C-alpha cells in the first residue's frame, strides 16, 4: 500500500491486485504461489471476514487472473513476518493464520516455531516459483518490522517470542540468499526500524496512532531509498 501510494505520487503507474492479507509466514506465501502455478490446491487458506468468521480464501477466486498479473510483473517484493505457525499433524500442512475454531482439534493441530531451514527452503521455492511465472526478474525479500502482538509458546514472554521469531526469519533469509546464487535479494527495512532507532533521538514507530506500526515518515524514506536503488537511474 505504501509503495503503491509512493509510486502514484511520483507519477508512476501502479495497479492493484488484492492478494490475501494472511500471507505472513513463508509456508503461506509458498502455498499461494504454488496455487497460482496450479501445483497445489489450497486447504489452509482461511481468512477472517469482516464479521469475524473464518472462510476459505480461494472459494471464489480466479486463479488465472493471479497468474496473468504475476506473469506481467517486472519484479517482486516478498515480505515475511512470523515464524510461529499452526501445523496439521495429520497432513503436515501449515495454516496461513490460526486454525478456524470450528476445525480446531488439540490432538491434530500443533502450534510450532518453524525452523531456519524450513523458512530458507520456503523462500527459495517462492523465488523459483515467481521466476517460473514471470521470467528472470528481481525477487527482493524483506522482513516485517512490526512486532508480534501475541504468542502461543508456553512460558515465553511476547518480547522473547518476538525476538526469536524475527531472528529465525532473518537468519533464514541470510541462508536463502547464500544459496540463491543471486536469484534472491534482501532489502533491510527491518534493520532500518529495529536497529537504526537505537541511534536516533526519536521513535521510528507510532504510525496510525499505534505503537506497533512503523512511522510514516520513515516508511517514506525507506521507500525513497528502495526506488533509488532498484529503479533509478539504471538499476
Question: What is shown here, in short?
Answer:
The protein is an alpha/beta fold.
Helix content: 25-40%
Task: Please report the number of helical segments.
Answer: 7
Report, as a whole number of angstroms, the end-to-end distance.
22 Å
The SSE order reads HHEEHEEEHEHEHH
Number of strands: 7
Strand content: 5-15%
Overall geometry comes to globular
Structural class: alpha/beta
Strand order across the largest sheet: 3-6-7
Mean pLDDT: 90
CA radius of gyration is 18 Å
As residue ranges, the low-confidence spans are none
- Give the biggest beta sheet: 3 strands, parallel
What keyword list fits this structure?
235 residues, three-stranded parallel beta sheet, 7 helices, 39% helix, two-stranded antiparallel ribbon, alpha/beta
List the topology elements.
Blueprint: H1 2-9, H2 26-37, E1 46-48, E2 54-56, H3 63-71, E3 76-80, E4 84-88, E5 109-113, H4 116-134, E6 139-143, H5 158-179, E7 184-186, H6 189-194, H7 216-230
Parallel strand pairs: 3-6, 6-7
Antiparallel strand pairs: 1-2, 4-5
Helix pairs in contact: 2-4, 4-5
Polypeptide structure, described:
By secondary structure, the protein is of the alpha/beta class. The chain is built from 7 helices and 7 strands, in the order H-H-E-E-H-E-E-E-H-E-H-E-H-H. It has helices spanning 2-9, 26-37, 63-71, 116-134, 158-179, 189-194, 216-230; strands at residues 46-48, 54-56, 76-80, 84-88, 109-113, 139-143, 184-186. A 3-stranded parallel beta sheet has the order 3-6-7, covered by helices on one side. Strands 1-2 form a two-stranded antiparallel ribbon.
Amino acid at each position: 500500500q505504501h509503495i503503491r501510494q509512493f509510486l502514484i505520487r511520483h507519477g508512476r503507474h501502479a495497479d492493484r491486485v488484492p492478494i490475501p492479507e494472511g500471507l505472513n509466514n513463508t509456508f503461506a506465501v509458498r502455498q499461494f504461489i504454488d496455487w497460482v502455478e496450479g501445483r497445489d490446491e489450497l486447504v489452509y487458506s482461511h481468512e477472517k471476514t469482516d464479521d469475524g468468521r473464518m472462510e476459505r480464501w480461494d472459494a471464489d477466486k480466479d486463479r488465472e487472473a493471479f497468474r496473468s498479473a504475476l506473469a506481467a510483473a517486472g519484479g517482486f517484493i516478498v515480505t515475511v513476518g512470523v515464524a510461529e505457525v499452526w501445523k496439521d499433524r495429520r497432513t503436515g500442512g501449515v495454516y496461513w493464520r490460526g486454525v478456524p475454531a470450528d476445525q480446531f482439534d488439540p490432538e491434530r493441530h500443533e502450534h510450532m516455531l518453524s525452523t531456519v531451514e524450513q523458512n530458507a527452503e520456503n523462500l527459495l521455492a517462492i523465488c523459483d516459483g515467481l521466476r517460473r511465472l514471470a521470467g528472470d526478474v528481481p525477487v527482493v525479500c524483506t522482513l516485517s518490522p512490526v512486532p508480534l502482538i501475541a504468542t502461543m509458546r508456553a512460558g515465553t514472554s511476547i518480547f522473547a517470542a518476538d525476538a526469536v521469531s524475527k531472528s529465525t526469519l532473518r537468519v533464514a533469509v541470510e541462508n536463502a540468499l547464500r544459496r540463491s546464487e543471486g536469484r534472491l535479494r534482501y532489502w533491510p527495512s527491518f534493520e532500518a526500524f529495529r536497529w537504526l532507532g537505537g541511534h536516533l533521538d526519536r521513535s521510528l514507530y507510532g504510525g496510525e496512532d499505534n505503537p506497533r506500526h512503523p512511522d510514516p515518515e520513515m516508511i517514506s524514506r525507506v521507500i525513497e531509498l528502495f526506488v533509488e536503488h532498484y529503479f533509478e537511474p539504471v538499476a
